[in-house]
């Protein structure tokens, strides 16, 4: 036991030295490095059931909220999503109705809302999530934007049965959400129910498995809860091409924007037939 303890101390020391060196060399990626170091060092405790991975991800001030909103990749991706929404908003001739699924820490929300805030009364933005805690924090964070409202939504269940009106949203955003659902086809069908004719589903999804993601988000049960093994045999993430194929199978007209060195993709999909909008990517 003493020998094992010494080995653990040595490993911790080496890891801490490497963490400091990496942050010094790549200060712009400090958020990701810190989170990886925290989750990696807690891996044995998580596997033994002695540590809560959600506490590691979301409780510390420097947790996943910053990864989703403040890291260089997140800023690039969120700005791209906001660009697409801004194009839709600019061409709208009436108040635009936007719903965000699994908005979580609000990293994507903040970028989109700040971009389109000047429309104010011409926007209805619904921030939805499964977690009441996320909704409560979001109400405080976005209190200055009266056009943002907050509701609980489980996209794995029929949204109409949850009080949402069918076909009532021009844009539905899901940023790094659908891969965490058990059945992608079911989640896409529910998202389609919410779209107005000609409306756009905007998906931001990681499309390449990585040790980084597995060592952080892979600590949670939700990362591995997929049941559609004909689509996802061993890993929750689909490739960009598999996403496009799935969307086509589900009768979406879709295209993709590659981002973050091909690690992520932004997929813009139009569901039920309607007037072909000029803002559809590649349309």
Describe, in short, the structure shown.
The protein is an alpha/beta fold and 283 residues long.
- Morphology: globular
The overall pLDDT average reads: 86
State the helical fraction.
40-55%
Major sheet: 7 strands, mixed
Element pattern in H and E: HHHHHHEHEHEEHEHHEE
Report the count of strand segments.
7
Query: In terms of structural class, how would the helical and strand content be classed?
Result: alpha/beta
Question: So how many helices?
Answer: 11
Portion in strands: 15-25%
Distance between the termini: 64 Å
Main-sheet strand order equals 3-2-1-4-5-7-6
Question: Residue ranges: pLDDT <50 for 5 or more in a row?
Answer: 1-9, 275-283
- Backbone CA Rg: 20 Å
Q: How does this model look, in words?
A:
The protein is an alpha/beta fold and 283 residues long. The protein has eleven helices and seven strands. It has helices at residues 2-25, 30-41, 43-47, 53-58, 64-69, 72-91, 107-116, 132-141, 184-194, 211-216, 240-249, and strands at residues 96-101, 123-129, 148-152, 169-175, 195-206, 253-259, 264-270. Strands 3-2-1-4-5-7-6 form a seven-stranded mixed sheet, sandwiched between helices. Helix 7 (107-116) links the parallel strand 1 (96-101) and strand 2.
What does the secondary structure layout of this molecule look like, with pairings?
Blueprint: H1 2-25, H2 30-41, H3 43-47, H4 53-58, H5 64-69, H6 72-91, E1 96-101, H7 107-116, E2 123-129, H8 132-141, E3 148-152, E4 169-175, H9 184-194, E5 195-206, H10 211-216, H11 240-249, E6 253-259, E7 264-270
Parallel strand pairs: 1-2, 1-4, 2-3, 4-5
Antiparallel strand pairs: 5-7, 6-7
Helix pairs in contact: 1-2, 6-7
């Amino acid at each position: 036991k003493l020998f094992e303890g010494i080995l653990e101390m040595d490993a911790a020391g080496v890891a801490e030295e490497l963490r400091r060196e990496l942050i010094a060399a790549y200060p712009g990626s400090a958020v990701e490095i810190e989170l990886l170091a925290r989750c990696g060092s807690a891996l044995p405790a998580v596997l033994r059931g002695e540590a809560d991975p959600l506490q590691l991800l979301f409780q510390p001030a420097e947790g996943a909220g910053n990864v989703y909103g403040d890291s260089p990749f997140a800023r690039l991706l969120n700005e791209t999503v906001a660009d697409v929404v801004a194009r839709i908003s600019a061409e709208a001739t009436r108040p635009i109705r936007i719903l965000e699924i699994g908005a979580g820490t609000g990293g994507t929300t903040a970028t989109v809302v700040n971009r389109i805030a000047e429309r104010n009364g011409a926007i209805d933005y619904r921030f939805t999530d499964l977690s009441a805690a996320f909704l409560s924090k979001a109400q405080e964070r976005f209190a200055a934007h009266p056009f943002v409202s907050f509701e609980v939504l489980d996209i794995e269940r029929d949204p109409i049965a949850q009080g949402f009106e069918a076909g009532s949203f021009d844009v539905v955003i899901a940023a790094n959400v659908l891969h965490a659902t058990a059945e992608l086809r079911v989640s896409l069908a529910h998202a389609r129910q919410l779209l107005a004719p000609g409306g756009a589903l905007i998906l931001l999804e990681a499309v390449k498995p990585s040790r980084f993601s597995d060592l952080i988000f892979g600590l949670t049960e939700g990362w591995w809860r997929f049941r559609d093994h004909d689509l996802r045999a061993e890993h929750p993430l689909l490739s960009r091409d598999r996403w496009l194929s799935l969307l086509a199978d589900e009768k979406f007209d879709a295209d993709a924007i590659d981002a973050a060195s091909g690690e992520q993709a932004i997929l813009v999909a139009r569901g039920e037939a309607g007037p072909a909008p000029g803002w559809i990517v590649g349309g």
